Amino acid sequence: MGFHCSQHQCFDCEQKTADAGGLIFRCRWCERGYCEDCLDFEKTELIGENLKEYELLQYPSVTQAYYISCPACTEHHAAHPDEKTFCANQAAEIDAKYQIMLDEQEASEASMTADKEMHKSLVPTPSDTQSLTDASTIDDSAVATPYFGIEEGSRSSKRKRKAAPSSFKLDMISLDDPGLPASPREQVEINSSPTTRAKRKVSPEPKKIKSSSKRFRRSAPS
Asked: How far is 71 from 80, CA to CA, in rounded Å?
């Protein structure tokens, strides 16, 4: 016959944990457990979701249990003061061990934090003006573009000439001002513009002057 823990069912109505709403109030000092309907809360001392002695053993809390000092133990301690003193001494000893565990955990966390800070101070970090790589970094998101010695001014001027529209080029040169000197490149742009080609079609052709050599020959004396 297997062992069955009595704290997994109500001592009065004998309902299991699942039948009692999923929670049994378990006593710290005895084997009894009670459901919410059968527990006398006026004679009960509530402790918590877990016991310190369980935490010392690294046992986690469970959602099916809440720990108390049950009404039967409260009445028994009132009738037997020596047993109440024994339970109080046990609780004080557990509290002392629990405090030592907390102090050790805090010291361990402080030591780990100090080691991390020391490690950060020993690792060299590049300054903002010096970089260990030519690629993009967190401080500089620009993409590293290869540079082959092309002058910056020539590259920018080419971009400007390519990006400028034809109307902008015509506005820079006045076609109505015949006295404005034009460079060979500008002259080609003027001759190739639509306005210049239209003017060539409209402008009349010069009249041909007939030669008067025949008339002179007739009037000349023989």
From this structure: 14
Q: End-to-end CA distance of the chain, in Å?
A: 166
Task: Please state, in angstroms and rounded to a whole number, the distance separating the CA atoms of residues 48 and 68.
Answer: 7
Separation of alpha carbons 76 and 26, rounded Å: 17
Sequence-distant (6+) residues with CB within 8 A of 183 are none
- Phi, psi torsion values for 69, nearest 5 degrees: -110, 110
CA distance 29 to 67: 10
The Cα–Cα gap between 111 and 113 comes to: 5
Q: What angle do CA 196, 198, 199 make, to 5 degrees?
A: 65
Half-sphere exposure of 57 (CA within 13 A, CB side): 7
Q: Using DSSP, state whether 69 is helix, strand or coil.
A: strand
Residue pair 74/44 in contact by the 8 Å Cβ criterion: yes
For each of the chain's 222 residues, which pLDDT tens digit applies?
567 788 999 999 999 999 988 999 999 999 999 999 999 999 999 999 999 999 999 999 999 999 999 999 999 999 999 999 999 999 999 999 999 999 999 999 888 888 888 877 776 665 544 555 555 555 555 555 555 555 555 555 455 555 555 554 444 444 445 555 555 555 545 555 555 555 555 445 555 555 544 444 454 454
